[in-house]
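Hi R.,

Quick one: here's the CoA-acylating methylmalonate-semialdehyde dehydrogenase sequence you asked about.
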Amino acid sequence: MTSSSVPSVKLLINGEFVESKTTQWRDVVNPATQQVLARVPFATAAEMDAAVAAAKEAFKTWRKTPIGARARIFLKYQQLIRDNIKELAALLTAEQGKTLPDAEGDVFRGLEVVEHAASIGTLQMGELANNVAGGVDTYTLLQPLGVCAGITPFNFPAMIPLWMFPMAIACGNTFVLKPSEQDPLVTMRLVELALEAGVPKGVLNVIHGGVDAVNLLCDHPDIKAVSFVGSTQVGTHVYNRASQNGKRAQCMMGAKNHAIVLPDANKQQTLNNLLGASFGAAGQRCMALPVVILVGEAQAWLPELIERTKTLKVNAGTEPGTDIGPVISCAALERITGLIAKGVEEGAKLELDGRNPHVPGYQDGNFVGPTIFSGVTAQMTVYREEIFGPVLCVMQAASLQEAIDIINANPNGNGTALFTRSGAAARHFQEEIDVGQVGINVPIPVPVPLFSFSGSRASKLGDLGPYGKQVVTFYTQTKTVTQRWFDEDADGGAVNTTITL
Ligand code: NAD
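And here's the predicted structure, written out as tokens:
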């Protein structure tokens, strides 16, 4: 059901923000109040085709735009985002629920990618080897692919779209973005600012929708590459479908990240870090820490961990001092509370029950308070499934190696963290852990854009990550040129039928 009296979210096709002609709409809802903020269309097939066609046409000129001209757009864009960061964060909190400071962080982490896109001049340089044979040089061109597409999740509606279109466009591609239908408003404001910064018409297009929109992007013959961030189930579908259609695909997916705490760690720092990473953003981060393994004597820290967790404040993201805002939807709330019930049923010890918190003034919000289970085993549903809520599973191990074995047996490989004062333990962990992003006394080790996001195993399909150097490889075709020039007066030489230069 949708409300027709609220503003409608527009499509962006060929530089114009247009009203969809669809009959299918969905409400964008404030998760702290259930207020309907806007309605978002599920674009028609004709509208989606028009967006791809606009991107295809714009590619003809955009691919030849000088690299400096492309870079300067992103220099301007980063300034516009910076100037509007408070407004962007407020919009984000209204539709997504996270606290205002966290929403600013969401925008800021995306802004860092935009800053990096402004360095495209040095990022998109090829290589040259002189005299690979007599009078022959070989060099590479990193050429844009054409129309690229991006499909994004609800939990970072600023950062994740900014992982994608700035780098794709800076490389000389054109783009069709499909934001999460749950919170598209901040994404659309960022898109408006991109046009204001000078992204030409047709270079960036936006369609809205769900399954049909995603399938169209995976199938459309004029789309060359698809970037996806979201759940493992949908990401696997996108990877398979886009790959079968001959496209490049990169899919960053679900997670179950573990922290290991050794007894020699700095206790207060470690507990602070665990609280922030396990319960911040109501646990709705793919790099959250929903599992902690307490090793040896660190198991005695559990009571203090529980007491400290009780001090976290559950409230609307707009209220000062809030630690944990609402989860994205009523359905998410129901799923999370269902999983908590399942944990109890399967024998985990519910040390702290965050269900049905009292949040004065926000009785209708999708709130679940911080929840802690101890005695969790690898067979339990609360361990096997990504809860994506403020629920922490505490496990025990007798040694660092036993803890590493638990993590390596888990199929996911997005992120992990070790807390210790021992350099030798840290080095052993770094060597032996089979996870793509590793923190040593850093709870959420998301790499800055000088590097690339590098989740692994079941958390990722495709070998190249978003942003950083890897995404320049993803968004470009390496063309290798081998050339020789004959002197005017050289004779024709002899025919050579062997494989030589
Ligand atoms: P989701 O998979 O439900 O949605 C992601 C996108 O896919 C959205 O644009 C949505 O419209 C679309 N979609 C949803 N269902 C679909 C279907 N059946 N067929 C085709 N398309 C569909 O993910 P979400 O709930 O928005 O986001 C949370 C998930 O994203 C979590 O699993 C989280 O771990 C993951 N995530 C991963 C990373 C990472 O970098 N690894 C980062 C952020 C979020």
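Residues 141 and 479 are 5 Å apart (CA to CA).

Cheers,
M.
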